[in-house]
């Protein structure tokens, strides 16, 4: 009897390990393995002045009284900021390693919930990723949207963007506070780098995300700084990207310590 139980346990563990390996192997273009000892840190700067915010007259839209409670709204007007920079340092730029094929596990990287709150979207900048074969089968748990506003209908509209063209991925009405839309099954990217989210009821509600090919990324803070850790030793193409400014790429050599890389994006 003891041998039978032990055999069952061994089979169960083997199946679990096989399932894990299978899931990792099927993340397209990236194989999960071990984290390295290297890192890349630096800053992303903006050359030129950031574009002025678009000043939205809330009185011309819906739910004026509630949407005017947003902390950035003043006298019924709210700024829609596309590019944020202070002292020449660019906030919410995404820094990614392009050509890294194996390294640390994905974990929760690329899994996202967008909150619709006070007629705004949080986070404003994020990352998303393609689905593994297993996630394509389950079609849930990777991307969702939650309406946190009372008595306000929001209509999240997600797009995949390539250059000047964009295509609808989903359009999901959320009429009540606490409503959640799981939109995982729509996350089918090919060569698109940019995911854009907007509310069809309040079009000044916007958020952006970079589509990842591996879990190595960072989003710059208000001071333009970033750090990517756990990188295996090697030579990599590293890109700094902001959807309304553009991107720039440089080659960075990483060892067991910290490598430095600074980027500058120019206003067109």
The helical percent reads 10-25%
Shape: globular
Count all strands and give the number.
23
User: What is the helix/strand order?
Assistant: HEEEHEEEEEEEEHEEEEEEEEEEEE
Q: Biggest β-sheet: count, sense, barrel?
A: 5 strands, mixed
**pLDDT < 50 runs, ≥5 residues:** 1-26
**SS-derived structural category:** mainly beta
Number of helices: 3
Characteristic key phrases:
268 residues, mainly beta, Immunoglobulin-like, 2 domains, 5-stranded mixed β-sheet, 4-stranded mixed β-sheet, 3 helices, 13% helix, globular, disordered N terminus
Produce the secondary structure layout.
Elements: H1 2-25, E1 31-32, E2 38-47, E3 54-57, H2 64-67, E4 77-80, E5 85-86, E6 89-90, E7 94-97, E8 102-103, E9 112-117, E10 120-122, E11 125-129, H3 133-138, E12 143-147, E13 156-162, E14 165-171, E15 180-182, E16 194-199, E17 206-212, E18 217-219, E19 225-231, E20 234-242, E21 246-254, E22 258-260, E23 263-266
Protein model, in words:
- The chain is mainly β.
- 13% of the residues lie in helices and 43% in strands.
- The chain folds into two domains: 92 residues, Sandwich (Immunoglobulin-like); 107 residues, Sandwich (Immunoglobulin-like).
- The longest helix has 24 residues.
At a glance:
The protein contains three helices and 23 strands.
